[in-house]
Amino acid sequence: MSIQTFLTYFINVDEYLVFLISLYGVWIYPILFIVIFCETGLVVFPFLPGDSLIFVAGTIAAQQLLNVWLLYILLVAGAILGDSLNYWIGRKLGPKVFSSETSKFFNKNNLIKANNFYEKHGGKTIIYARFIPVLRTFAPFVAGIGKMTYIRFFAYNIVGGILWVSLALFGGYYFGQIPIIKNNLTLVVIVIIITSLIPAIVEYIKHRIRKIEVI
After folding, report:
1. In Å, what is the CA distance from 175 to each residue of 57, 95, 160?
2. What pTM was estimated for this model as a whole?
3. Residue 168 · residue 40 · CB < 8 Å
4. Is 100 helix (H, G, I), strand (E, B) or coil?
């Protein structure tokens, strides 16, 4: 699939989801589960739609084309199980990947920093990351690398997964039928994507400013 084709599907997810429902029928439920599971559970798929897909699924459920409660259960399960898998991948691969003494990024010092960061800030990071594309995919992986205890991680994972899916799905379900939103759904999806990226952009700018000040 070309980048242009992917972006077309991604930006116009509202249109293509209806088409996929007509094409696959009830199989759309496991398909959506798999998409959310992969987007949160595999670090190689941070580009898959998350917030926007769940929001649009909510608007379609409001039209009685999907069962909102079945969707809710499957998407929450996909989000929680995905993060759990990502955590264990990081836990198993982290010590091997971050074993170098000379590598600029993959070295033991960065592993120790990740460990200290997640022991101090890990809980809120796991929850906040749910609402930020890309970071949502990497946060549980880094939590595993940092050796954040699984019990602590899993508690925040559940809270974050439920909160994320609830806001996105029921936001689409209850607000997606407002005429101005319903008639401009593609634009709403783009706004959701841009808005969700703002926190990461702000943090990056702050980080760059701090580095300049130190210099």
Report:
1. 12, 45, 22
2. 0.77
3. no
4. strand
- How far is it, in rounded angstroms, from Cα 24 to Cα 88? 32
C-alpha dihedral sign at 78, 80, 130, 43 = negative
Q: Chain centroid to CA 157: how far?
A: 12
Query: How far is residue 130's CA from residue 167's CA, in Å, rounded to a whole number?
Result: 11
pLDDT average per 10 residues of sequence, the chain (215 residues): 59 70 89 91 79 89 91 96 93 69 54 60 79 81 82 92 94 81 68 66 61 56
Which structure tokens are listed for 157? 């994972």
Long-range Cβ pairs for the range 119-127 (8 Å, 24+) = 119/146, 119/148, 122/146, 122/148, 122/152, 122/153, 122/156, 123/152, 123/155, 123/156, 124/156, 126/83, 126/153, 126/156, 126/157, 126/160, 127/156, 127/159, 127/160, 127/163
With a CB cutoff of 8 Å and minimum separation 6, the contacts of 174 are 58, 62
- Would you call 112 helix, strand, or coil by DSSP? helix
CB-based burial of residue 196 (10 Å sphere; 0-12 exposed, 13-18 middle, 19+ buried)?
A: buried
CA distance 174 to 151: 34
d(CA 99, CA 127): 28
Q: Pick left, alpha or beta for residue 48 (phi over 0 → left; psi -120 to 50 → alpha; otherwise beta).
A: beta
Nearest-angstrom CA–CA distance, 21 and 32? 11
